Amino acid sequence: SLILCLDGEARITVFNDECERVTGYSREEVLGKRWPELMLPPSMRHPGLDDFTEWVRAHPSDRLEGQIITKKGDIRHILWSNSSQFDPVTGELTAIAIGHDITERKRFREALRESEERYRLLIENATEVITMIDSNHRIAILNKAAANALGGSIEDFVGRKVEELPLGPQAQMMSAIIDNLFACGKSMSLEVPYDTKEGRCWYWVNAQPILMSSSPTSFYLSIATDITARKRNEIRAKARLDLLTGLRTAESVDRCLELGCLAIKEAELFTRAVLTLQNEQREIINLGQVGLD
Known about the structure:
With 293 residues, the protein is of the alpha+beta class. The protein is 37% helix and 33% strand. It has helices spanning 17-23, 27-30, 35-39, 52-58, 103-124, 144-150, 154-157, 170-184, 228-249, 253-266; strands spanning 2-6, 12-15, 62-69, 75-86, 93-101, 129-134, 139-142, 188-196, 199-212, 215-226, 273-278, 284-290. The N and C termini lie far apart (82 Å).
């Protein structure tokens, strides 16, 4: 910690090693010199310091963040805890200041704020579905792609809980996923199905815990990539393979037609299917069906 003492004229009487390190001045260079003119930026040299003793009487102790100018002309940010003592006999003032150099901390926070703003702009314009949700399931950030997937605008959903979103019966599943994420506290990747009016979609979700400098709350940032086309191709490839495997052991034509209907359903082309075999008179001689019961 920086430790310095000033007398009633704001002259430096104590200047410890940490003060030397932070300011670049040696003790011999500063003892007896007025603190305001030597160390304070002009904007901080307020009129109250002209009568330093009276100013300290009015402010016997305080805690504040201020700036100092180093010997090289650099600005350092110091968090000060100030107190004072008056000699009971002479009435002479000793102002005691204990400070912590928080310059790097402030620079880091400022850089983090700038980084967060760039991050926010990147999120808003990304094509992936991106959301940031807190441990209470409340949405802090979502981008345009996420809002479009939910059928609204960004303003419609920021601040709302996941359980309040138009997810239907899937809201409970999403809630359980969020609870699992915060319980483990680690990055996770998972495949999440999502039912829409147009049918089922699939997303590959990468979720990671994140801390914001502006909030003590913990969040999870999720980036979801639409893998519906790939997933449908996988499902249809499996349906074709199952059909070919089944046909090898089918005991009748009707069973072959039924397996074809099952393949159509499993490929998610239709929920119901009928396949028939007709003779020359267009009479049905064999039939297979799924979903008509």
